[in-house]
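Why should sequence recovery work at all? Because a backbone constrains its sequence more than one might expect. Tight turns favour small or flexible residues, buried strands favour hydrophobic ones, and helices have their own preferences. The token representation captures these environments compactly. In the example below, the structure is given first.
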């Protein structure tokens, strides 16, 4: 009997099969130029990504985690400060603050969209909070209006963690163009991914962009070689990754629509089952479905069933930040962030990528239905 090919969680090979000639040409262009760092490809990508993201400026860096660190440093975060981050996110959101000697202040997430809860944020704020980092989780924008209102009234800065939300909209506005900075990751699995590590910052403030550009380049004054008015880092975006990203950026809109089509098929096929689907778009929103996460109080059993049916899944994330050993020094205990803890027990990511076919979505949905029928 013929065994069906498993449905992958993510399949980059399909994407790169189509792009191979253009990516090869891009790599050849960089090699022929003889410029491999801080050259024309990086400058061109920064301009193109800023325009695509509704931002005045873009500063390329070598990873999404370093984008967060540079953003906080440019905003003056340092020892003694606190940075508010959601309790349910990837650890890099919190460690960016730790790298600068600041302390992460954890905030619970809303139970629907799993993004930072503005009510809990206001409740937990202290005078030490210098910046707040809402995360646009899974490709759905955080509720930014109340966060920005608090920022204006309390005087803190806002860094949007956009690692999973390239091209997402919040009430008609592009994410990454709302706060003081937007921090993007181009890790290969992201909606816009490099062929290695890469990241970028977006901002509407030219002064902040210039400062970030200096900090990512060993503290140099932009345009100089040995003028270092400040300490900085070697966090530069290399020319090869910039050239690859320029090729892929042209497809981002089409890939976003591919993800949204797959999500619509999932919503239709899984409607009425005893599990929670991703929160719907608010008016003016556009989710970009970095992952399609369902929620079930039988998550582990559902995952095992789907794995057995040839459907690859993943858990993003199995532990909230306050339960990680790396952050035990924050002094939290189970029950401190109930929505984040419940999410960690329930979330399950189903296959999601732009090239996912309708028959593949159907296979996934049939396997999910089979679990609940059993």
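From this structural description, the recovered sequence reads:
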């Amino acid at each position: 009997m013929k065994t069906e090919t498993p449905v992958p969680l993510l399949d980059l090979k399909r994407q790169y099969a189509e792009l191979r000639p253009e990516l090869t040409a891009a790599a050849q262009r960089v090699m022929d130029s003889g410029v491999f760092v801080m050259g024309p490809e990086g400058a061109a990508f920064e301009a193109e990504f800023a325009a695509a993201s509704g931002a005045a400026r873009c500063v390329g860096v070598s990873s999404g985690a370093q984008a967060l660190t540079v953003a906080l440093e440019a905003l003056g975060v340092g020892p003694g400060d606190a940075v508010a981050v959601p309790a349910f996110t990837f650890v890099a959101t919190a460690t960016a603050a730790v790298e600068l000697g600041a302390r992460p202040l954890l905030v619970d997430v809303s139970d629907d969209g799993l993004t930072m809860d503005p009510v809990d944020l206001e409740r937990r704020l202290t005078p030490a909070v210098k910046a707040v980092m809402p995360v646009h989780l899974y490709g759905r924008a955080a509720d930014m209006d109340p966060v920005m209102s608090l920022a204006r009234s309390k005087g803190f800065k806002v860094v949007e963690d956009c690692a999973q939300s390239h091209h997402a909209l919040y009430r008609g506005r592009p994410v990454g163009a709302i706060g003081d900075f937007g921090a993007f990751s181009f890790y290969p699995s992201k909606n816009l991914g490099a062929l290695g590590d890469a990241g970028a910052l977006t901002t509407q403030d030219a002064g902040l962009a210039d400062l970030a550009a200096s900090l990512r380049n060993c503290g140099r004054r932009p345009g100089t070689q040995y003028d270092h008015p400040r300490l900085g880092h070697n966090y530069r975006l290399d020319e090869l990754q910039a050239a690859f990203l320029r090729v892929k950026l042209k497809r981002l809109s089409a890939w976003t629509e591919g993800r949204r089509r797959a999500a619509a098929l999932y919503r239709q096929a899984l409607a009425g089952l005893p599990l929670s689907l991703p929160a719907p778009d608010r008016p003016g929103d556009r989710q970009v479905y970095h992952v399609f996460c369902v929620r079930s109080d039988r998550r582990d059993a559902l995952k095992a069933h789907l794995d057995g049916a040839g459907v690859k899944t993943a858990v993003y994330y199995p532990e909230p930040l306050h339960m990680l050993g790396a952050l035990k020094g924050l002094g939290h205990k189970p029950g401190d962030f109930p929505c984040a803890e419940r999410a960690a027990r329930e979330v399950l990511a189903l296959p999601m990528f732009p090239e996912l076919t309708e028959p593949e979505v159907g296979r996934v949905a049939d396997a999910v239905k089979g679990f609940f029928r059993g």
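A few observations help interpret the result. DSSP finds twelve helices and eleven strands in the chain.
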